[in-house]
Write a structure and sequence with these properties.
Helix content: 10-25%
Shape: elongated
Radius of gyration: 25 Å
Strand content: 25-35%
Distance between the termini: 23 Å
Strand order of the largest sheet: 6-7-15-14
């Protein structure tokens, strides 16, 4: 494939991926506790008739326009020039905190600072920043999907049907006694994987935070950290980039057709 055409196709594919990610972020801008995704890119090098060599340390995030980077490089195997192209390296989660809004609901909770609530699901433990909780028929504190919220001891929290007070350290008490304490854990941001909606899974070892750190806010919820204005602006920029790549592909394809026609006539 012609290097120019390859660069255009490569760019169009990257722009398409970025549009998908941005669209999902914007669609979840009102989802409580949602964390936006960002696409990461790195560069790879091509050399005629040889394998591709990765370029370490050359990475960037975001895409605001056509990005084609010619880069002459003499490989260890020969003196042939190579070209580098950005490629999608994957997505990562932006774990920055969203705005915290007051609801007045005693079962709504927000975490100020780092950490996650822990849920017990059929697929194992899941983590979330969404503290929109309720009490099920068994008196357990659950999330909106009915998954039990785990306490500091690792068991479901049985809070009963009475009104509860939740202190900043996560201690839950009703009018008669203390019924438990919320579990709050930290995880490496790089280990987090989306597990549907605003839930995460992680293969890393969780670290339970000490109760003295505080940070639980009763009657509040954390909103999505998606910046809608920025996201819309990026969507426009990426859409323009995609259109530019498609125009380049059509133009180069037309030139290839003309060259083939000339070749047949000569």
């Amino acid at each position: 494939m012609d290097s120019g055409l390859y660069a255009a196709v490569n760019g169009a594919m990257r722009a398409s991926l970025r549009m998908d990610v941005l669209s999902n972020n914007l669609a979840n801008s009102s989802t409580t506790g949602f964390k936006e995704d960002e696409v990461t890119f790195d560069s790879y090098m091509t050399k005629p008739g040889a394998a591709q060599f990765p370029l370490p340390g050359d990475s960037f995030m975001g895409l605001t326009g056509p990005k084609y980077i010619p880069f002459p490089f003499s490989s260890p195997a020969s003196n042939a020039y190579s070209m580098t192209y950005p490629r999608a390296d994957g997505t990562h989660v932006d774990v920055s905190q969203g705005s915290i809004n007051h609801t007045g609901n005693p079962l709504d909770l927000a975490i100020e600072g780092e950490g996650y609530f822990v849920l017990n699901t059929p697929q194992g433990r899941r983590y979330t920043r969404d503290g929109s909780f309720a009490i099920n028929a068994q008196g357990e504190l659950v999330n909106k999907d009915g998954y039990p919220v785990l306490g500091a001891g690792g068991a479901a929290l049985i809070v009963g049907n009475e009104r509860v007070e939740i202190s900043p350290d996560g201690t839950i008490a009703n009018a008669r006694s203390v019924v438990g304490r919320l579990m709050r854990v930290t995880l490496p941001a790089a280990s987090l994987e989306k597990a549907g909606g605003n839930l995460f899974q992680s293969s890393a070892q969780e670290r339970q935070m000490e109760s003295a750190t505080g940070g639980f806010l009763q009657g509040f919820v954390e909103q999505s950290n998606v910046n809608v204005v920025r996201g819309m602006t990026q969507m426009i920029e990426v859409n323009r980039a995609f259109e530019a790549y498609m125009q380049m592909i059509r133009a180069l394809d037309g030139l290839d057709g003309q060259a083939a026609q000339i070749g047949r006539l000569s």
